[in-house]
């Protein structure tokens, strides 16, 4: 294993996919975010907490500029972060992943991780635009969200080990995970916040958010798999002789 | 006549430090983007960081877009 090369490949893959994610958010998610923040402002004006003055607009515009410009930087950081987790699991499971090429192995693993630590948790605790979340419940919501991801992720890992051990009837492990996560899904508490924003805006935001995150996972699988295929960090260059 | 040959040996062992380093990158990145409410800057700026929320605001749009709980 060429360790330095392995780490560089993981970080570059995560960074590239993260930048793609940030750019995808600009295209798909930002319009809904702007709309939701517009509603949030209307609530501030209606409650008398703020007045719709040129000063407020100037301050708001610079504030939004800071938030929007952070989209790409945050995409890069989150991309590297999730990419690192993916790199760890890929290098430890590569030999047992199905598929001949590393691109195929990488795409299979991204598919499993996308399902276990993104899509299933998303179905339980979907993304919400601004105006929906209550600041008083943010700690509880964060705990629920992280706990569900951890349970689903470790559950998938456990059932994958069972899957590998089973000589026949391997589908029992997949069924086992489905039953396990189904029970967790219906046992865990719901998001405590009531949605007061227009439902069509919330639903549109959720779909666009899921599209952008899925683009990230797909990009990560393709980029890491391609770089791995090209540079083969698992092969140690032992010696050269004439 | 000389021939140039290379031998590629496949080793399964992954250095622990590489796994630990990537795990730290994972945890730190996730905290910055998903959960910081002024905690990191409070190490330097104290209580004021919890009011300024610079990292929270910088990552705000991604926090919503990636599905993290926010205000």
Please sum up the structure shown.
Chain A has 242 residues and is mostly helical. Chain A has helices spanning 3-28, 30-47, 54-93, 102-124, 138-165, 171-187, 199-231, and one strand spanning 235-241.
What's the tally of helices of chain B?
Answer: 5
Radius of gyration of chain B: 21 Å
Mean pLDDT across all amino acids of chain A:
93
Question: Helix amount of chain B, in percent?
Answer: 55-70%
Beginning-to-end CA distance, first to last residue of chain A:
24 Å
CA-based shape of chain A: flat
Stretches of chain A where pLDDT falls below 50 for ≥5 residues? none
Estimate the global geometry of chain B from the Cα principal axes. flat
- Radius of gyration of chain A (Å): 22 Å
Q: Compute the number of strand runs of chain A.
A: 1
- Tell me what portion of residues of chain A adopts beta-strand conformation: under 5%
Name the structural class of chain A. Answer: mainly alpha
Tell me the quaternary state.
Answer: heterodimer
Secondary-structure map:
The complex is a heterodimer of chains A (about 240) and B (about 70).
Chain A: H1 3-28, H2 30-47, H3 54-93, H4 102-124, H5 138-165, H6 171-187, H7 199-231, E1 235-241
Helix pairs in contact in A: 1-3, 1-7, 2-7, 4-5, 4-7, 5-6
Chain B: E1 5-10, H1 16-34, H2 39-45, H3 48-52, H4 54-58, H5 60-65
């Amino acid at each position: 294993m060429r360790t330095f090369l392995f780490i560089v490949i993981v970080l570059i893959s995560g960074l590239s996919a993260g930048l793609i994610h940030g750019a995808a958010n600009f295209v798909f998610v930002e319009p809904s975010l702007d709309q939701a923040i517009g509603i949030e402002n209307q609530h501030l004006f209606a409650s008398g907490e703020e007045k719709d003055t040129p000063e407020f607009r100037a301050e708001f515009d610079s504030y939004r500029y800071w938030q929007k410009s952070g989209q790409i930087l945050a995409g890069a950081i989150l991309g590297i972060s999730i990419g690192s987790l993916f790199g760890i699991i890929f290098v430890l499971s590569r030999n047992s992943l199905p598929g001949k090429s590393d691109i195929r192995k990488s795409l299979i693993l991204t598919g499993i991780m996308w399902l276990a630590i993104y899509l299933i948790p998303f179905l339980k605790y979907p993304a919400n635009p601004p105006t929906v979340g209550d600041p008083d419940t943010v700690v509880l919501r964060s705990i629920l969200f992280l706990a569900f991801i951890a349970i689903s992720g470790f559950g998938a890992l456990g059932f994958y080990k069972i899957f590998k051990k089973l000589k026949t009837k391997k589908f029992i492990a997949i069924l086992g995970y489905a039953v396990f996560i189904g029970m967790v899904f219906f046992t865990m508490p719901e998001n405590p916040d009531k949605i007061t924003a227009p439902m069509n805006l919330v639903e549109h935001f959720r779909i666009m958010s899921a599209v952008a995150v899925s683009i990230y996972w797909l990009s990560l699988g393709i980029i890491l798999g391609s770089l791995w295929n090209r540079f083969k960090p698992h092969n140690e260059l032992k010696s050269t002789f004439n | 006549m000389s021939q140039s040959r290379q031998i590629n040996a496949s080793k399964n062992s992954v250095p622990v430090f590489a796994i630990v380093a990537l795990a730290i990158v994972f945890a730190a990145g996730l905290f910055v983007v998903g959960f910081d409410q002024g905690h990191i800057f409070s190490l330097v700026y104290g209580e004021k960081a919890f009011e300024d929320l610079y990292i929270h605001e910088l990552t705000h749009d991604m926090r919503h877009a990636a599905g993290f709980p926010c205000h």
